[in-house]
Structure of Ion transporter:
Amino acid sequence: MKLTRKRLAHIVFESDDAASKRFDVVLLIAILGSVTITVLDSVRKLHDAYGTIFYMMEWAFTILFTMEYILRVWLSRRTTGYVLSFYGLVDLLAILPTYISLVVANSHFLAVVRALRFLRVLRVLKLGRYMREAQMLTEALHNSRMKIQIFLGSVITIILVMGTVMFFIEGPESGFTSIPMAMYWAIVTLTTVGYGDISPMTPLGQFMASLIMLLGYAIIAVPTGIVTSEINAAKNKKRNSDDQRTCHTCHAGNHDEDAYHCKYCGTRL
Amino acid sequence: MKLTRKRLAHIVFESDDAASKRFDVVLLIAILGSVTITVLDSVRKLHDAYGTIFYMMEWAFTILFTMEYILRVWLSRRTTGYVLSFYGLVDLLAILPTYISLVVANSHFLAVVRALRFLRVLRVLKLGRYMREAQMLTEALHNSRMKIQIFLGSVITIILVMGTVMFFIEGPESGFTSIPMAMYWAIVTLTTVGYGDISPMTPLGQFMASLIMLLGYAIIAVPTGIVTSEINAAKNKKRNSDDQRTCHTCHAGNHDEDAYHCKYCGTRL
Amino acid sequence: MKLTRKRLAHIVFESDDAASKRFDVVLLIAILGSVTITVLDSVRKLHDAYGTIFYMMEWAFTILFTMEYILRVWLSRRTTGYVLSFYGLVDLLAILPTYISLVVANSHFLAVVRALRFLRVLRVLKLGRYMREAQMLTEALHNSRMKIQIFLGSVITIILVMGTVMFFIEGPESGFTSIPMAMYWAIVTLTTVGYGDISPMTPLGQFMASLIMLLGYAIIAVPTGIVTSEINAAKNKKRNSDDQRTCHTCHAGNHDEDAYHCKYCGTRL
Amino acid sequence: MKLTRKRLAHIVFESDDAASKRFDVVLLIAILGSVTITVLDSVRKLHDAYGTIFYMMEWAFTILFTMEYILRVWLSRRTTGYVLSFYGLVDLLAILPTYISLVVANSHFLAVVRALRFLRVLRVLKLGRYMREAQMLTEALHNSRMKIQIFLGSVITIILVMGTVMFFIEGPESGFTSIPMAMYWAIVTLTTVGYGDISPMTPLGQFMASLIMLLGYAIIAVPTGIVTSEINAAKNKKRNSDDQRTCHTCHAGNHDEDAYHCKYCGTRL
């Protein structure tokens, strides 16, 4: 088969035949490999021992991703559309740091260069392209957006009021040095994380802390209830759209599973 | 448009045209701003650097809220009704501390003044006016009130009994200096917060602690189940009240909103 | 009204008129009061300051509960039935320790006496008599008993295997001194309590710990799902039994809310 | 009854008469006993005091399980099928370590021998044979496999990105010595375990940590929602498959098991 531009575009953007699937698998491995290297390189011991190998592999991955980026820019129907899309920006951010580190290495902006290097980890977001089944989940989350906002609003109010109260009760001696610090403690407590780096010392403070803990323990039920209810709704909707029967008279679809007659014109299905 | 008293009342109490919406937005920003300043002012570094600016902005917000309070008192149909309502009291508590700090500053009651200053954070409760969509959530919580009370009663009994048992097993050496302290530990453990400031040292104590943890891990399912079930019920109620039609022939209900014929027997609804 | 034995039994065992309700309220306050005193007496400072008052009040409550116990034994139809019932034993355990402490005080078994004193806290279980609305909750828990057992079995297996693996990986240096201690750590981690008194130090141990945490985070969904599903089922059942309609022909009850005809004989309801 | 091979196979593989049930109970006790001994033997004090008894009991259990293994190999219809099955491998791994420790004891591979000894704990997996009621639970988990994978994928992405960000913000001074270490911290925080061995020190780091905590607190709702929804579905499926009857007149389904007439139109089912 000749490698025409149309054929190439099919390989890059689709995944329904052998060649396009192989392209996807190679990219997937490259993404996982490059992220793994960035992570391992941050461990001092491994950096000291294998730093040169990591550096060379990083360049290999960067060249591969650069080629992929050029291909996508060249092959996409609306070039600016791709470049400015979410994945277009992620693809660019995944290759830029390596090139910039080359240019800036001679200057003194070493801290900035270090920071940029870790942007490479964002390559993991490119995996999002391969998660098509996530639709129902994101739909459920999207539908419960309003309720989750109200819930978060209430939680933040509780944290603000409780943080202020605890700052006043405990004071700087117990580590509650300011309201923001006391709010940090309130979040650590309400979400039941409980580091223990700051914890109340006075009996009254411990009583208030107990209230926050029981509150946090009880209100976790709210987001759970919201999401469960939405997932149920999304499921029922999906089940209905799975019913493929079409009415012979009025051609209407979307019938319930238990329907015997068309709900629009009354014809037997 | 002339600014009559009726027009002003509309702007202050409603939010359905440009002027009243602008009024709401200005107030919202002022509330968030004044709360932010109170929070930031509690950080010693920021207080030392920007204390004067914070003080001036605090007065600006206080004057603004005072004007809002006077407007609301003047414009509301039943003045005492507003003054004694929840939001009336919050509005008053949000401006009082600044004025009191002015009066009391010359005296020696500095600790009291400090405490009063943080009452300003309560202004955040004024945001509640803008959260109208919370109705279904609060209804679900209200319906499961009885069950949540029983659940909290059981949790408090577990905490009391377990606290007493652990106080006897561990004793003051491990930090379980009294039953209230042991109950505080039991709350920290049952709610899975786990600060680690007090933790059992003896094998028997660690065994009892394991039981409490597994119990806390299992019974969190109860409030979650209650709330989920209530949210489902609130949802079904809403959906059912959306369509009350019943088939005349087979008496089947539960028809879709867009149905013209019964889906079971085909009769015209 | 003359205080016959029958009238007294009504006051003690029922709660449907003024006198019996007053009896319940007095007992409720006495239970809460006596438990509060036991708890407060365990705080050294309060014991030193108010020890004598606590001692006197303790005796007052004990005499009151002794009178209640004698009344219940005398008035109950089947005396042995009450004495050996759950609440009969709780009532006895609530008064015995005070008397025993009197007898044993002269001997050297001080530690035993101390332990017995805290048995008084069990009086809180007497409150169970007043929690009649708990039925639906306990029914839901009872129905999901089997599934909760399987869930706990799986959790204990995970804890045993993970504890053994971590004991081998980490060893005594990190605090994993034995398999039971490592299992204690596994429980602390899986239930997301996380004291931090023992935590893995080696990279492999931290990797295994991460797996346990994510597992614990994911499988908490299982008991929640079980209980939610049971509460829904209990609710539907209750709703059905709320339908009070009875068939005129066959006198059958228990009809669904949406039923138009008796499901047993077909008569119009 | 003569102990033929067929009879023996019945006793070993089934559990529907007295003899086969007795065989199961003996094995169950032996499994629990041998696991308990391995666990207790890991406690130094108990090992020093009862090491010899543990050693002898361990050999008794090993001989018993060896006999069971030989029986199962001999009696199973397809010998290789059993040997290579999951439980076949567990049965072998449960007896091998004791024999190997005998052979290797004379050599210097003591560390390996110690490790192998703890493989005995895997015997607990043999209990899985007796958990037949777990079917509905595992089915629900199996059905939500895809969604749980997507959820775990998202969680791992959050952990990777947040770990990298925190490594850059906090640096080695606060214990974030490398990206893997920062990812370990992110897992400890997101799952609300919160050991406190590593915790953010800078204000920006504490702000980012607060975001992760609130995120972890909110997204635990997702697996819970998924599993609850699947358990409900499994339950409805079971209930519906219990009654497949449809009314001949109005085609309504969903009849109660004890119904004789359609509850909507009264027709005989």
About this structure: Chain A is about 70% helix and 0% strand. Chain A touches chain D through 55 residues (CB under 8 Å). The CA atoms of residues 44 and 235 of chain A lie 48 Å apart.
